[in-house]
Every structure is written in structure tokens, then in C-alpha cells.
Amino acid sequence: MGTVAMLRAVGIGTGDEVIVPAYGNVEVAEAVELAGARPVFADIDPDTYCLDPSSVEAGVSGRTAGIIAIHRFGQPADVARLREIGGRRGLLVLEHGESDQSHDGLAQRRAYAGYLNARLSGVRTPLGSDRHSYQQYVVRVPGNGRPDRDAFAHAVRARGIDCRVPVKTPVHRLPRFRRDVALPETERAADETLALPLSASLSRRDLHKVVSACNALGGLLQPAF
């Protein structure tokens, strides 16, 4: 059953609000609107990139009917805390995204992530967790905002590494969903995050190439114009 159908099935619709993250997954906000409700954006945890339960609770109003938790990059959302909030406030909690830890290549991805975590410098590596399946290996390029990350990505690609920006614009900054809301961790993550290649098909030589390309940059670069 799709998100729209699930929302409608439990009676969420016109006049209701549903709390969702603004860091990626515009289709979730779209589904809330298609069900007739209004998406309300909460901030994320800076380590997991999933909904921050404290921000969620702060966003609950008399019209709030549900919360949609999105598992991000293979890191599961804190569903237990969100369900505790939902139970106290009478809210439906739905999950979106892959949280299964048993799929193929999991042990290999975790081993490769450990290799990168131990060797990368100049970037902030993902928070280590035995619950993280590393569907994407996302690092941060800290600095003064997006130009640093984008310049770093350009330089890494020039060295033959296929990296990508996982979330270019938070949903609450898109014209259709623009909201005057403070989501500092969401905006910081959108400015700093970069997904580096990580799959079970990579060789140790491939991983060494990733490390060499990133470490050769020495951390922050000058803004790209």
C-alpha cells in the first residue's frame, strides 16, 4: 500500500497535518498533499539524517494527525521514540524507506565502510553503528557552506571518483513547499553532505583510490565560481 493510500485508510485528510523531514524525499510531502493534508517539516538528527524526535514533538499542533519517519542512507530512524511521541499525542507513525538489515552485501558494505572510516581525512565520516547498512556512504565536507562541498566534489570527480550530492535542496526550500521554518541541521546537511561510492562490487584498489583522491585535497577547498 502506498503512502497516500495508507494516510487515507486511517482517515488522514483535509485539515490534518503530517510531520515529515525536509531533507530529501519530496515524494513524501507530495503524498501528504495528495491525501488532502498539509506537510509540516521537522529537523533531522545530524548524525543519522533521520527525523529528530525533539523537533518532531516541537512541531505537533492541534491539527497534527501523523508522523512519517524516513530511514536514510541505510541508517534507521528512531522509530521507538517517534512511536512513544505518537502514543502520547494520539498520532499515527508511518515508516518510509528501507530498514531491513538482511539484504545481500551487508557485511561487505560494513567492512568497506570501516575501511573508509579509518582512512579518510578532510571529511567527516558517517557515525558508526551496528544498525547502519550503508546503502549510501555519506560524508560531510565542513566549511562555510555549499561552495566548499561542491568544489570538493568537483575535484574528487576530476580524480575519477563517482561521487554525488544526495540532497541538493531541502523540501521546505522548494517553491511548492516553501515554509518559513528554522531547520538548521537540515540546511547544514544539504550544504555539506556528499555520497562517496560504496558497494560490494568495489575492490580494495577502488577503495584505496577513493581514499587517495579525498585525502589529497587536504580538506577544505576555495569556493567554486
Describe this structure in words.
- With 225 residues, the chain is an alpha/beta fold.
- The protein has two domains: 3-96, Type I PLP-dependent aspartate aminotransferase-like (Major domain) (Aspartate Aminotransferase, domain 2); 106-215, Aspartate Aminotransferase, domain 1 (Alpha-Beta Complex).
- It has helices at residues 3-9, 26-34, 53-58, 79-89, 106-119, 146-158, 184-192, 204-215; strands at residues 17-21, 38-42, 64-70, 92-96, 137-140, 193-196.
- It has a four-stranded parallel beta sheet with strand order 2-1-3-4, sandwiched between helices.
- The longest helix has 14 residues, at 106-119.
- Mean pLDDT is 90; it is low at 220-225.
- Keywords: Aminotransferase, Pyridoxal phosphate, Transferase.
Assigned CATH architecture of the largest domain = Alpha-Beta Complex
The rough form would be described as elongated
Q: Give the strand content.
A: 5-15%
The Rg value, from CA coordinates, equals 19 Å
How many angstroms does the end-to-end distance come to? 45 Å
CATH superfamily of the largest domain: Aspartate Aminotransferase, domain 1
CATH class of the largest domain: Alpha Beta
Following the backbone from N to C, one meets helices and strands in this order, namely HEHEHEHEHEHHEH
Mean pLDDT, rounded to whole units? 90
SSE-based structural type: alpha/beta
The name of the CATH topology of the largest domain is Aspartate Aminotransferase, domain 1
Low-confidence stretches: 220-225
Strand order of the largest sheet: 2-1-3-4
Task: Specify the number of helices.
Answer: 8
